Amino acid sequence: MLRPRIIPCLLVKDGGLVKTQKFSEPKYVGDPINAVKIFNEKEADELIVIDIDATRYAKDPDLKLLQNLANESRMPMCYGGGVKTVSQAKAVVSIGIEKVALSSIVVENPNIISNIADEIGSQSVVAVLDIKKKKLSSKYEIWTHNGTKNSKLDPVDFSLELQSLGAGEIVINSIDHDGMMDGLDFPILEKIYNQLSIPMTIVGGVGSLKDIEEAVQKFKYIGVGVGSFFVFKGKYRAVMINYPTIEERDHIVANTLL
């Protein structure tokens, strides 16, 4: 049976685990291998790992790091960062990572979705769209290269295009809410969600279990990606990896049936 997914999102830079705010000022928060071990113990639903510098600096995926992460992980894992070709996507899944996330490359070449899906299956192809609201406007645009380049594409229309090309999942990542723990940007998320027939995951803004619960109540079988809230604790943002207990998750899931 389908159920909502609560997904820790780990950002990697130079082999270390970092956290950002609005895609800037990455702060080192520890070893990603240790974080995976903790999320294993807490029985996380799934894991997203993104190398935030790979595309921006034209680096290939760090397959050695990914192999270490895959060997340690006991949960499904999605990796994004630097994947630009079919052969790179096949290399990532060949080491035990279930999903490949594509971001900047789908803006440059949307047909890469179909090419990779033909080789590894649509269920393993995830399109990640980093979105930002235009100043003095109600419109949103897709940004690439770690939030440094504006494609000026509309995220609703482009999500539909990527779905038609064979994407198995769409991840919507809010640049404005990244690391702020100030709540999710529901109006634009609802517009995109209502147009899709494939799974969708939303990232950016979760600051409490209530935020997760609100997302599940609105969207039912959604993926809720969480970064800072699962890494920091308290007003001083002390580093402490955390994840909802089984009882807390059961309470959230039960609300999808109401």
UniProtKB/TrEMBL annotation:
E.C. no: 4.3.2.10
Keywords: Amino-acid biosynthesis, Histidine biosynthesis, Lyase
Enzyme class: lyase
Metabolic or biological pathway: Amino-acid biosynthesis; L-histidine biosynthesis; L-histidine from 5-phospho-alpha-D-ribose 1-diphosphate: step 5/9
Any GO BP: L-histidine biosynthetic process
Catalytic activity field: 5-[(5-phospho-1-deoxy-D-ribulos-1-ylimino)methylamino]-1-(5-phospho-beta-D-ribosyl)imidazole-4-carboxamide + L-glutamine = D-erythro-1-(imidazol-4-yl)glycerol 3-phosphate + 5-amino-1-(5-phospho-beta-D-ribosyl)imidazole-4-carboxamide + L-glutamate + H(+)
Superkingdom of the organism of origin: Bacteria
A GO MF label: imidazoleglycerol-phosphate synthase activity
InterPro entries membership: Aldolase_TIM (IPR013785), His_biosynth (IPR006062), HisF (IPR004651), IGPS_HisA/HisF (IPR050064), RibuloseP-bd_barrel (IPR011060)
Pfam family, one: His_biosynth
Subunit: Heterodimer of HisH and HisF.
NCBIfam families linked: AglZ_HisF2_fam
Protein task: IGPS catalyzes the conversion of PRFAR and glutamine to IGP, AICAR and glutamate. The HisF subunit catalyzes the cyclization activity that produces IGP and AICAR from PRFAR using the ammonia provided by the HisH subunit.
Family from the record: Belongs to the HisA/HisF family.
Protein name, per record: imidazole glycerol-phosphate synthase
